[in-house]
Inverse folding.
């Protein structure tokens, strides 16, 4: 299991030191209310995790928000561990974690485990899922998987400039309705859509009533029974765990990481109220 | 037919995956689900591996993997 995210209100943890970054070289903020805090946000109020398929522009979004120069490159597996930075918006300080690109939270590779562990056990206040507007269909499975874990999600529909060139327009209002979470069109390398993205992040970070995690109904009665049975046992052992059905399904799949989290009791961390973290 | 038999440039629709466990999951994560449209795009000189276009992305499969993907040629599924 990856180390949990630092607790809000505590200073920067010593392990995050991406090379070549400096807080003083931040660009002029695109929004009057955005202050890029680079590497050292000091105290912060909310944790934002940045997830998405490989090569969707996560690191570009990360740099646009923090003013850092986290290495941006067009190849898979570039961000192998997580990078962290900070920004302040509307008087609130945010710590932001750039996760490795993944197609899925269900496969077994180190990168994907890092991403999943942060999403499950780091309990970020907001998960920004960066998706490629030119390959939306391929990006949506990850959005749905993350929506099964949490409702504290903002979808950054990135690369809309490239999509426009390809004659693709995406109905973000419809997508927002279908996914039950804000979808914001962005072109992060041109700072397009960043004010809207920041507003959506702030709204999700501060809401007391986030959308419920998506609940998929399985149409195979035997599977549905097995999931319901196991979910009830998970809930009995870890009262208050927010996504017992998701955990049950992973256990039925023989997911070693989740088995370990149940065996060691790490899963119980999910059940503690966020305020107590 | 299976995907390895699909001639270059031809389109087909995925009907089933003859795989279990992690490998099946991986192909599904990459968009190879029943109903997905797929096209044989490029073949390496020896015919293995082959690049397939699926949901706007290229996915490269070895012949052994492609053989586990059942397809129906010549009809159009979800884009």
């Amino acid at each position: 299991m990856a180390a949990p995210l630092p607790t809000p209100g505590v200073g920067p943890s010593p392990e995050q030191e991406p090379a070549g970054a400096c807080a003083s070289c931040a660009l002029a903020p695109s929004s009057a209310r955005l202050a890029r805090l680079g590497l050292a946000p000091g105290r912060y109020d909310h944790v934002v995790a940045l997830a998405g398929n490989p090569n969707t522009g996560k690191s570009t979004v990360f740099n646009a928000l923090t003013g850092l120069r986290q290495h941006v490159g067009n190849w898979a597996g570039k961000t192998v561990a997580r990078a962290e930075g900070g920004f302040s918006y509307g008087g609130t300080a945010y710590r932001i974690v750039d996760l490795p690109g993944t197609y899925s939270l269900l496969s077994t590779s180190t990168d994907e485990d890092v991403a999943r562990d942060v999403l499950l056990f780091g309990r970020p206040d907001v998960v920004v899922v960066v998706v490629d507007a030119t390959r939306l269909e391929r990006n949506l499975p990850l959005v749905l998987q993350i929506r099964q874990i949490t409702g504290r999600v903002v979808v950054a529909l990135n690369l809309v400039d490239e999509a426009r060139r390809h004659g693709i327009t995406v109905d973000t209002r419809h997508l927002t309705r279908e996914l039950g979470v804000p979808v914001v069109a962005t072109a992060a390398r041109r700072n397009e859509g960043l004010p809207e993205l920041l507003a959506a992040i702030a709204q999700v970070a501060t809401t007391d009533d986030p959308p419920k995690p998506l609940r998929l109904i399985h149409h195979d009665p035997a599977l549905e029974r097995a999931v319901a049975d196991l979910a009830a046992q998970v809930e009995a052992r870890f009262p208050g765990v927010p996504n017992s059905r998701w955990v049950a399904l992973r256990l039925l799949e023989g997911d070693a990481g989740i088995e370990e989290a149940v065996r060691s009791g790490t899963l119980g961390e999910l059940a503690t109220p966020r305020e107590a973290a | 037919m299976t995907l390895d038999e699909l001639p270059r440039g031809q389109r087909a629709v995925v009907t089933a995956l003859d795989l279990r466990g992690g490998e099946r999951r991986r192909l599904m994560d990459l968009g190879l689900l029943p109903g997905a449209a797929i096209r044989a795009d490029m073949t390496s000189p020896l015919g293995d591996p082959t690049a397939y276009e699926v949901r706007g992305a290229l996915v490269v499969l070895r012949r052994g993997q492609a053989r586990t993907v059942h397809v129906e040629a010549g009809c159009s599924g979800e884009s």
User: Anything to note?
Assistant: Residues 21-29 of chain B form the longest helix (9 residues). The interface with chain A takes residues 21-22, 25-26, 29-31, 54-57, 78-79 of chain B (CB under 8 Å). Helices of chain B lie at 21-29, 63-66.
